[in-house]
Design a protein that fits this description.
With 619 residues, this protein is of the alpha+beta class. Among the domains are: 8-192, Heat Shock Protein 90 (2-Layer Sandwich), CATH 3.30.565.10; 197-368, Ribosomal Protein S5, domain 2 (2-Layer Sandwich). The chain has 19 helices and 22 strands. The strands form four sheets. Strands 1, 2, 3, 4, 5, 6, 7, 8 and 9 form a nine-stranded mixed β-sheet that branches.
């Protein structure tokens, strides 16, 4: 309930709770530095700050050390008292105690009042009393070591990349804060400090997304002493991107689902830009401008600090305080309108961008009202010779299977549903698009065939309105060569036709590797693990059942009917949709660049770091 689940996000949420407590000390002026260490086992972490240190004196009502109360009791945090924290990422006072309850081991070390204190816990319960381990201590601060409980979480292996990205974000949102991160498994050390704050953060986000801004000087607002003690930081910049990208935070905590502060910002943007365009007569006659047109291409960051945030859920993904929408909207609208009037070249550039967005939207709507069909000319001319096209001319109903090899292509052509399923066989492994120029990509016959079959263009010329199939399915053998070909095709689609992935048109087929016959029934296993699971279930029902096992060397071995029943038939097949989660876009970019790029050293390092995990080697 408090961390959102027992998967990977829930595991990392434990760390965010501990780090956010340390960041609260920094946000309120009590700390300046945080150290985070991912230990060699990859499953335990230490977070240290130079704040005031958790109190160690006796709790006035519970008569045990306050440290123990905070770490073992829900709603016992010190954040309810505004004299302790002006603004805080915490809400319910449950973070530290939840981390403790979900950890096999937790050790709290506190430097305070010239002494060092320590107490140990296991699964939320104290196993030692609070002990003074030094009486001659300089400085103050809190150190929390914890190891998540393997009996609770699906995995207890932390992801260093996710940790590093999150920690750096904290320093963008708190310009005076320094965070050091060490990964003991690799020996890597990072020091994060961004005095430029959210302005620097915005520049980082724009560069990371590889989008071109339409004006150079971003709008920046730091508004303090607002209603109810709230203060807000906002920065905005319009770009050529076809979508708006807003990153919102409350007291340094990311709110991926937005909330009232983000809605207030959106309202302010709409009002200020429309007012500027009306004042300077920049609205073309008879052109309807929507709020979406005004915000298209904007990249923005809003970081709100307030005393009593009310979130939707303990994981703090959405702010619910209704009064905040008006407070943020009023503060931003006036300042943004004045900014546009003081910088007319910027205001005019934004207005031009808004008009372009509105015209494009109207053109798109007009096109959508026509019956979209693949004409007989587009259906037959400039299509690859090996393409076995489908009869349907409706993209929403049409599927393209990109198949490995002519033999598998032959089986797929015979087993397909000719009305809606098209087959394009590829010969061998395609070009690695990450190491090639666009000219080389288009000169490559296999990749050129893919582009021609899809019909929507490539790169900057890509138009999803011309896409001939709304399911593009990679159908490869269930072996290492098949996986490699899938990876090469995904690299090509990611680098040159990414909108297909972003709009959910790309899938990977899951053909079986094994056929299992037992007691007049047939089962299909995706891989070795799936095979063992199915065989164990069969033996559990009847130990004496005779089991016959067949391993497919490739799709070409399958009879057309078998391929249809297991992989082509929409009612029976298993498809894996290819997506790029927003939270993992940077990791995706880094992974493709490192593992598929020209620099072999990154691949060598990856192999050396993961060699111990390899069970089977296909040479």
């Amino acid at each position: 309930m408090y961390i959102g689940g027992t998967g990977k996000p829930g595991l990392h949420h434990l760390l965010w709770e501990v780090v956010d407590n340390a960041v609260d000390e920094a946000t309120n002026g009590y700390a300046s530095h945080i150290d985070v260490i991912l230990h060699k086992d990859g499953r335990s972490i230490t977070v240290t700050d130079n704040g005031r240190g958790i109190p160690v004196d006796k709790h006035p009502t519970k008569k045990i050390p306050t440290l123990e109360v905070i770490l073992t009791t829900l709603h016992a945090g010190g954040k309810f008292d505004s004299s302790n924290y002006i603004t805080s990422g915490g809400l319910h006072g449950v973070g530290a105690s939840v981390v403790n309850a979900l950890s096999e081991e937790l050790v709290a070390t506190v430097k305070r009042d010239g002494a060092t204190w320590e107490q140990r816990f296991e699964r939320g319960k104290p196993v030692t009393t609070l002990k003074k381990i030094s009486s001659s201590t300089r400085g103050t601060g809190t150190c929390i070591f914890f190891r998540p409980d393997a009996d609770i979480f699906e995995t207890v292996d932390f992801d260093a990349g996710i940790i590093a990205e999150n920690l750096e974000t904290k320093t963008y949102l708190n310009g005076a804060l320094r965070i050091a991160f060490k990964n003991e498994a690799t020996g890597e050390k990072y020091e994060y400090h961004h005095e430029g704050g959210i302005e620097e953060f915005l520049a980082h986000k724009v560069a990371e997304a590889r989008i071109r801004p339409v004006h150079l000087d971003p709008f920046v607002l730091r508004q303090e002493a607002m209603q109810d003690g709230a203060r807000v930081e906002v920065t905005l910049q319009w770009s050529e991107s076809p979508r708006e990208t807003l990153h919102s935070y409350v007291n340094g905590i990311p709110t991926p689902d937005g909330g009232t502060h983000e809605q207030g910002l959106k309202n302010a943007i709409r009002s200020a830009v429309r007012s500027y365009m009306d004042t300077h007569d920049l609205l073309p006659k008879k052109l309807e401008i929507s709020a979406e047109d005004i915000r298209e291409g904007v990249v923005g960051i809003v970081n709100l600090f307030m005393v009593d945030p009310q979130f939707q859920g303990q994981t703090k993904e959405k702010l619910n305080n209704p009064e905040i929408k008006g407070i943020v909207s009023s503060a931003v609208r006036l300042e943004l309108e004045q900014f546009l009037n003081r910088h007319p070249s910027t205001g005019d550039a934004i207005a031009t961008r808004v008009v372009q967005a509105a015209k494009a939207r109207h053109a798109s709507r007009a096109a959508a009202t026509k019956v979209r069909r693949k004409t007989s000319v587009s259906h037959r001319l400039n299509l690859p010779g090996k393409l076995a096209d489908c009869a349907s001319t409706t993209p929403e109903d049409s599927e393209l299977f990109i198949v490995e090899g002519d033999s598998a292509g032959g089986s797929a052509k015979q087993g397909r549903e000719r009305a809606t399923q098209a087959i394009l066989p590829l010969r061998g492994k395609v070009l690695n698009a990450e190491q090639a120029t666009l000219k080389k990509v288009m000169d490559n016959k296999e990749l050129s065939n893919v582009v021609q079959a899809l019909g929507c263009g490539i790169g900057d010329q890509l138009d999803l309105g011309k896409l001939r199939y709304h399911k593009v399915i990679l159908l490869m053998d269930a072996d290492s060569d098949g996986h490699h070909i899938s990876t090469l095709l995904l690299t090509f689609l990611y680098r040159y036709m990414k909108p297909l992935i972003e709009e959910g048109f790309v899938f990977i087929a899951q053909p079986p590797l094994y056929r299992i016959d037992a007691a007049k029934q047939t089962y299909w296993a995706l891989d070795d693990e799936d095979r063992e699971r199915i065989m164990a279930e069969i033996r559990k029902r009847n130990k004496s059942t005779k089991i016959e096992l067949q391993r497919f060397k490739g799709l070409g071995e399958m009879m057309p009917q078998t391929l249809k029943d297991t992989t082509l038939d929409p009612e029976k097949r298993r498809l894996l949709q290819v997506t790029i989660p927003d939270a993992e876009r940077l990791i995706t970019e880094q992974t493709i660049s490192q593992l598929m790029g020209k620099d072999a050293s990154a691949r060598f390092e990856f192999i050396m770091n993961n060699v111990d995990e390899v069970e089977d080697l296909d040479v």
